[in-house]
UniProtKB/TrEMBL annotation:
Belongs to the peptidase M16 family. It comes from the Bacteria. One of its GO terms (molecular function) is metal ion binding. Transmembrane segments: none annotated. Residues 58-158 form the Peptidase M16 N-terminal domain. This is Peptidase involved in subtilosin production. It comes from Bacillus inaquosorum KCTC 13429.
C-alpha cells in the first residue's frame, strides 16, 4: 500500500464524537486487535501549577497533577487496579508535562462495565486526609528512586541549566519539598478545575465496532462541532548573555549530555510542524543506522559508541536533549554541523531518509495499539488528521533542515561531561 494511502486509511477509521456533557470520544478502529485500549486523557499535566479564577490565582506545588493521579486510584475506599483486574482489565496511569492519563486494556465485551467505573472514579472523587498522607510517603519514595536514575537526573539538570524557571525542569512527580507542602484544599481546587468532562478525551482503540457498541448506553454521542481549534505555536527562544554552560571535565569525557533551548524559527512557529521537523532531523543526525552517521563516522574516524536525541516542544518553549558516548562525544554536534554545510549536495538524500524513517515508524507503530494511541493522541492534541501528519513530513525541504542546523550552532547550550570513572560507576 502507498504510504499516503495508509495515512488516509487511518483517518477513515477515525471517528470523533462528543457526549452531551462535553466528553470527547476519539474512536480509532483497528480490525486486527483482539483487545481494546481505552485511555482517558485529562488536560492537566505537570506544567499546570497555576489556577486562574475571578477571585484570584492559586499557585500550586509542583507535582499536583501527578499527586491527583495517585489519589484517583482510590475510589470509595477501594483500589481501582484491583477492581479492573477483577473485570479482566489492566489499569495503569501516567502524568506527562501536558496531561494525565488513565489507560487500560480490556476484552471488548468488558468495556461497557469498565468504562463507567473509570469515568465515575474520575468525576466523583472524595478526598481523604489519611489517603493523602499515605500517598505523600509513596510519592516521596518515587522521587527519591527517580534521583538514582542518572539519565533522568541529567535530563532535568540540563533543562534547569537552560531555563531554571521552566516547569519542564522539574520531575513530573515534583520535588520532596512540594510533596511536603501539598495541601488538601489545593488538591481539591485543582481537581475541581481539571477533572471536568470538557477537559477529558476518551480514546477507544482496537476492533471494528462502532463507539456505541463499546460505550455504556447512557452516554449519548453527538457529531464533532464544526470548528477548528486554535493553532498551537511555540515562542522564539529568549535572548541570552551566555550561550553555553558546562559542567564536568571537557578534556576527558566518556559521556556527553547536551541540552539546547529551541523555539520558533524565522517564518515558522507552528508547534506540530517543528516537532515533526526535529524528529526527522534527529533521525538523520543522531541515529546510529542513518547514512549520515555512517558517512561522518568513516570520514572523521569518530569514536562514538552511543548516540540519541529527544526533542521536547510545547507552547511555552522547547528543549533538545542529546546524549553521545565515546572518546569524541563532546565534539559530535560541531563536527556534524560542519559536515552538513560541507556536503550540501547530499542533504536531499539524507532528508529523504529522515522522512522515510518517520513515516515508516508511524506505519510500523500502527500494528501496536499502545503505540498507535500515541500518534492518535498527537492528532487529538493538535486537532489534525493522520494525513496532516503525512503532509507536514512530506513537505519538509532542504531549507527547513538547514534552519535546524543553524539552531544547533546558535542556540543556548548546557553541557554535562561525565568522566569514564563516573560512567562506569553508574
Amino acid at each position: 500500500m502507498e504510504k499516503k494511502a495508509f495515512f488516509q486509511q487511518l483517518d477513515e477509521r477515525t471517528d470523533i464524537r462528543y457526549t452531551d456533557s462535553g466528553l470527547k470520544i476519539f474512536r480509532l478502529k483497528f480490525p486486527r486487535a483482539n483487545l481494546r485500549l481505552c485511555n482517558v486523557k485529562i488536560d492537566f499535566g505537570s506544567r499546570d501549577v497555576r489556577l486562574q479564577a475571578e477571585s484570584g490565582d492559586t499557585q500550586l506545588p509542583y507535582g499536583t497533577a501527578h499527586f491527583l493521579e495517585h489519589l484517583l486510584f482510590w475510589h470509595n475506599g477501594r483500589n481501582l487496579y484491583s477492581d479492573f483486574f477483577a473485570h479482566g482489565a489492566l489499569l495503569n496511569a501516567f502524568t506527562t508535562y501536558t496531561d494525565t492519563n488513565f489507560m487500560f486494556t480490556s476484552l471488548p465485551n468488558r468495556c461497557r462495565q469498565t468504562i463507567p467505573i473509570l469515568l465515575d472514579a474520575l468525576s466523583n472523587h472524595s478526598f481523604d486526609k489519611q489517603m493523602i498522607t499515605q500517598e505523600k510517603a509513596v510519592i516521596t519514595n518515587e522521587i527519591q528512586t527517580a534521583h538514582l536514575n542518572h539519565q533522568l537526573s541529567y535530563h532535568y539538570q540540563l533543562i534547569s541549566m537552560l531555563s531554571p524557571a521552566s516547569p519542564a525542569a522539574v520531575f513530573p512527580a515534583g520535588r520532596i519539598k512540594d510533596i511536603e507542602a501539598m495541601d488538601i484544599r489545593d488538591l481539591q481546587k485543582a481537581y475541581k478545575a481539571a477533572y471536568k468532562p470538557q477537559r477529558m478525551t476518551l480514546f477507544l482503540i482496537g476492533g471494528s465496532e462502532d463507539s456505541e457498541t463499546l460505550l455504556p448506553p447512557h452516554l449519548r454521542l453527538e457529531k464533532r462541532p464544526d470548528h477548528k481549534a486554535d493553532r498551537k505555536m511555540i515562542p522564539a527562544c529568549p535572548p541570552t548573555l551566555s550561550q553555553k554552560e558546562v559542567l564536568g571535565d571537557e578534556e576527558r569525557p566518556e559521556d556527553t549530555w547536551t541540552g539546547l533551548q529551541i523555539g520558533a524559527l524565522p517564518g515558522q512557529n507552528d508547534l506540530l510542524t517543528l516537532k515533526l521537523y526535529w524528529d526527522i532531523a534527529s533521525r538523520i543526525l543522531f541515529q546510529f543506522g542513518s547514512p549520515f552517521f555512517q558517512e561522518i563516522q568513516q570520514t572523521y574516524r569518530l569514536e562514538i559508541n552511543r548516540l540519541s536525541a529527544e526533542a521536547h516542544m510545547y507552547e511555552d518553549g522547547g528543549f533538545l536533549i542529546l546524549h553521545s558516548q565515546g572518546a569524541h562525544s563532546s565534539a559530535y554536534i560541531d563536527v556534524a554541523s560542519y559536515y552538513v554545510r560541507q556536503q550540501k549536495k547530499q542533504i536531499a538524500a539524507w532528508l529523504q531518509y529522515g522522512k522515510n524513517s518517520l513515516t515508516d515508524a508511524i506505519i510500523y507503530d500502527s500494528d501496536y495499539v499502545r503505540k498507535c494511541f500515541e500518534w492518535a493522541a498527537e492528532c487529538e492534541r493538535f486537532d489534525c488528521s493522520f494525513l496532516d501528519l503525512y503532509r507536514t513530513i512530506h513537505d519538509m525541504n532542504v531549507q527547513d533542515f538547514m534552519s535546524l542546523i543553524d539552531v544547533l550552532g546558535s542556540s543556548k547550550k548546557a553541557v554535562i561531561h561525565v568522566s569514564q570513572k563516573e560512567a562506569i560507576g553508574q
